[in-house]
Amino acid sequence: MSDSTRADALLANLPRNGRGRLKVFLGAAPGVGKTFAMLQAAHAQQRQGVKVLAGVVETHGRAETEVLLAGLQQQPLLRSQYRGVTLEEMDLDGLLRAAPALALVDELAHTNAPGSRHAKRWQDVQELLAAGIDVFTTVNVQHLESLNDKVRDITGVQVRETLPDWVLQEAFELVLIDLPPRELLERLREGKVYVPEQARAAIDAFFSQTNLTALRELAMQTAAAQVDADLAHGYRQRGQEAPALRGRLLVGIDGDDQAERLVRHASRVAQRRHLPWSLVHVDNGRLRDETARHRLQAAQQLAERLGGEVVLLRAGEVARTLIQHAAERRASLVLVGQSRDRLRRRLFGTGVAARLLRESHGLEINVLDRDVQPPAPRSAVRRVWVWRHYLLALLATVMAAGLAWAVSSVLALPNISLVFLAAVLLVAVRSSLGPALACAALSFLVYDFLFIPPNFSFSIQREEDVLTLVFFLLMAALTGNLAARQRRQLQALRETQAQTSQLLDLSRRLTVATDRQAIFKAAGQHLGGWQDTQVCLLERNAEGQLQVASGEAHTFSDTERAAADWAWQHVQAAGHGSDTLPEGRWWWWPLAVDEQPLALLGVRPRTGRPLSDPRRRLLTALGQPLAQALARARLAEQLEAARLHGETEQLRSALLASVSHDLRTPLTAMRGSIDSLLALGDAIPAEDRRELLEGTRNEAERLDRYIQNLLDMTRLGHGGLKLARDWVAPADIVGSALNRLRVVLAPLRVHTDVPAELPLLFVHAALIEQALVNVLENAARFSPANGRLELQVAVHDDQLRLTVSDQGPGIPVADREKIFDMFYTAARGDRGGQGTGLGLAICQGMIGAHGGQILVGEGIDGQGTSITLCLPLPPQPEADSETP
Amino acid sequence: MSQSATLLVIDDEPQIRKFLRISLASQGYKVLEAATGAEGLAQAALGKPDLVVLDLGLPDMDGQQVLRELREWSAVPVMVLSVRASEVQKVDALDGGANDYVTKPFGIQEFLARVRALLRQVPQAGGSEVAACFGPLTVDFAFRRVTLDGVEVALTRKEYALLALLAGHPGRVITQQQLLKDIWGPTHAEDTHYLRIVVGHLRQKLGDDPTAPRFIITEAGVGYRLVAPTA
Description:
- The structure holds two protein chains of two kinds.
- Chain A is an alpha/beta fold.
- Chain A is built from 28 helices and 25 strands.
- In chain A, strands 3-2-6-7-1-8 form a six-stranded parallel sheet, with helices on both faces. In chain A, strands 11-10-9-12-13 form a five-stranded parallel sheet, with helices on both faces. A five-stranded antiparallel sheet of chain A has the order 15-14-18-17-16.
- In chain A, helix 11 links the parallel strand 9 and strand 10 (about 275-285).
- In chain A, helix 17 (about 415-430) packs antiparallel against helix 18 and helix 23 packs across helix 28 (about 840-850).
- The relative contact order of chain A is 0.04.
- Chain B is α/β, with parallel strands linked by helices.
- Chain B folds into two domains: about 5-120, Rossmann fold; about 130-225, Arc Repressor Mutant, subunit A (Orthogonal Bundle).
- In chain B, about 40% of the residues lie in helices and about 20% in strands.
- Chain B has helices spanning about 15-25, 35-45, 65-75, 85-95, 110-120, 155-170, 175-185, 190-205; strands at about 5-10, 30-35, 50-55, 80-85, 100-105, 130-135, 135-140, 145-150, 150, 175, 215-220, 225.
- In chain B, the strands form three sheets. A five-stranded parallel sheet of chain B has the order 2-1-3-4-5, sandwiched between helices. In chain B, strands 6-7-8-9 form a four-stranded antiparallel sheet, with helices on one face.
């Protein structure tokens, strides 16, 4: 017993996220007293103080039941009109609003009236449970999905209103209401059981002693299975060995009429033996007609409802593929049906079952007997006889005959048959097996009539001609069969290929799409081109409302919108053709990853006909990559936002660190100097006193410059840098900068090279001056004592270049690009090497705002640093035309 | 140049008022103080100062408004205290009637020099002076002659007009617009490039290094100033 299994079992017992608990009162037949028992239990709860609300309770006119019901609070039923008839249904919204602790819902398998939110009452109950409301309900055993065919076998009545088994299995408690059949019959006679007059005859057949006994046994079995499951669950909780989940059950189905029966049987067996099970269908290209496909589809849906997995494989050999798959999935039991063709099976042992028995090793093979069923009363999809094809067969035969006759003088008798063979082949390739065989038969007759002596009669004279004819027919049939099969396989392949290429195409488009908008656009483009359907994608906007993300703007009716909302909320398909709110024209399919809906795919068939299953399958298949792409886009968005946030945070903390250090440094010097003067004033000689005072002043100026840098930086960042450009003489800027740094530059040997005639700049003077001040200060800070500092102004092409060179330690080549990065400089602050602090980053901002650039290079005589501010020169204005 | 002139300092910062008082008093000026615009206007009316030092960032009224109201009834010279990088503010103040400005934080020497320059103008609004001396440079208004170290300098008409204007208000800033309007005419108030070119030529002729000018100082974005005479 592994810890995780035990943990799962324990967890399963915890109240599941506030989900309500379902208690089911199960009975074998109507009239055993389920409703009565339910009401009694409800009263017991009410006495304990639980708020009970009766959603819908059918009393069927029984007095005792009505008395019990009167003592409970009832939620009024919802009335609706449908085709002139007033229908009453449970008021689901009313119940949800009232939010009782316990709700009573009778007849769990009931089908709701058209126009209700859900097609079935059990789906309403699921919503109640999801909202945290406990529910008591009643069910007759014949309504269970997996028992449906058994009940039919017993009673001869096919029950239409079925309930998926998992609903019952999820129930918290199952109460079996049992009544011996004799007593039930007595009640019937006394008139205590509700019997609608119209169904009198059928009910009489239903309520026979044997029937009731059998049903009673079924009900007991169901309850026993539930108890068994609970017991195993209990053992698991205690950490003891549960019935080991060994192996898996595979049920292999075809598109024949046994499919659903096999599935139901498989689910029962799997449940009894506690095995997980899968439905496996091997498509060998044979399955082509509508009926078979419908059956297959229905079987698949049934399997999913009953809790099985659906596996579709494509291969040529059914038996071998099943064996392989069984080995892969470590199946222990394979269930198949008997082959159709009994004769062939017996003679050749080529049926799937026989093959399995022969070729499998270590597998348990169960073969289910064929069941002669009454024809399924579903809306028969009759095989469409394509008259065209039979006409083609006829035509081909006639043409072949003509050709053969024309050629008969040249070719020998046996070879003429080849012409007819060609005709058969042609027909087989162009149409299907039926017309091909017809052509073969017809050709046979014509061949006999025209060419086998005696000519122009159907009799055969020579014995060898009989052989010829027989073999001709054989060949014709064989080739026809083969050709038709090839054609079918080709068609199947084509459909697969079309589907795959659609998927590939969409995937390709989606890979290129970088954000959500692009994805929606790509999807819309791809899906918009379909002829038979209209597709649109919905997503939730900021207000939480669903809006169209791609496709044309559609208007939706209230039902359709409600269906869309429901689909989004419950992450399940809804709308047209589904179980929920099927009134609208649109079918909604939620695209979700990890139960998180990202978008809704809406499909509406353009023609009146409902959405075909291949189309639905294709859409759900396409939904996958779309959902993944959307999830990817969302992650990318989140990542980007996080990155930006991270960057901003990083910058902010770097700046704060820099600021607090760089502001404190001059203040420390100032404070120190002044404190010293105050405290030790007289002890300090006069010139030292003067030095301290001067130092204080210089530090104050430095602080001022630093604060100016900070101010500029905030303006740069917030886009508050408005350039007030004006005509400026470069020499003025240089002079002003040098003047401001007079004290700083004093200990250095400063050389300026400023030509007399310089063009004017059209810039914001204060900013350029600030940039130059920063560069000069930076150079001065790292220059050696009495070092040389050069300032050069020159015109270079259409730029004005101001170059400051120093003899300092220089900036390593690798760092030369980085010194203008605010992260780099700010992080290292003033205490870093040359080229740190905010100054240079601000230079970049100022010069950049003017459309200029900064170059970094080697300083004086190859050592140190030179920084060049390049500013674009505007076309020079005209000097005034008047006399100077 | 009466050293016992009365100065009114209007600034809300007590520390600034203190150091100004001390500095100015040490030069022999009498100092009145006001902390708000309203108080300042009242003191100006009562104390009749010879110069008003006005801080633009006052708590109760905008400095410009104080200036406006003051100018309604007084022509007393006003020195404005402003912060850097608000040239627009400086120009507005000068246009609004202020005579000069200093940028905070300022050096006391510069401040005192400008105060002196402003006080010198009080008797006349300028123009009655015959000649002005600025070290080696002499400007003779009567004869319209400029000499540098005794050597006459040949100036064009506009160059002379510019120099004369600046020399007429030594030590004080003259705004660009003012110069352009006076020399080129009102329609040329935005053609700063004219000014730059003329100043450049003027500096050249006066032998002034543009990066370290002795005479004509550029006040970026505001105007020009002729260095106060050392006499």
